[in-house]
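Suppose you are handed a protein chain with no further information: no name, no annotation, nothing but its sequence. What can you learn? This example shows the usual starting point.
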Amino acid sequence: MKITMDEVRHVAMLARLKLDDARLEQLTRQMDDILRYMDKLGELDTTDVPPTTHALNLTGAMRNDEVRPSARREELLANAPASDGENFVVPKVI
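A reasonable first move is to predict its three-dimensional structure. Written in structure tokens, the prediction is:
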């Protein structure tokens, strides 16, 4: 086995999880399956596979940063519940 029940019990204790023995056995088997599968993936030859940051080849996802006119302050503050003429006035939160 790649992982023991004692290791799963230790991780559960660190995560402050109360697990009975049946659940510990189940999680141990599931985690062991995952770790064995990871070993199988590690056997793959990926020398010719380029590193990727996304599964899809996205281009132009970001627009160019350009100056555009924005709304006037009076328009933005018009629907505010409270303002001092220049800023939104919000209740103090501590």
